[in-house]
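Researcher: Next entry in the queue.
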Amino acid sequence: MTGETLSFSQPHQTVIKVRGYHCDFYGHVNNARYLEFFEEARWQYLEAGMDLNYWKGRGLGFVVASVTVNYKRPAGPGMELEILSETTILKGRKGVIHQEVRDLATGKEVANADITFAVIDLNTGRAREMEGEVLAGFEKIRDAQREIESS
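Model: Structure for this entry, 151 residues:
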């Protein structure tokens, strides 16, 4: 799986309802709040197939190296947003999780992001190759998503 593009027939889904405190002066979701939405969805995505405490106990951690966000249209209070998450790249010492935010009512894309991450050794702070037990963890996520899809 190293270096290949990963794909699910149905990415992991997280739904978040927009609250008033998510919005700026103009009644739109503040750009910084999207980072929180993406993070919540990534936690749910990873927890669907990995025990993150197990990884921490093994001295491994997932860290974000960069975030590229594209804002497409505003979202406001009361809207339900669907965040779709899937790992698209695992290569060398990095991976990419692609996330899309859609208005659940219309299906229109609100924003998207590519989150580049690394798996690090918590003792040394150095990135680990995406191999062995790290790849096996992402296989568990893929298997968990397939199980959801077939239900």
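Model: DSSP finds three helices and five strands in the chain.
Researcher: Noted, moving on.
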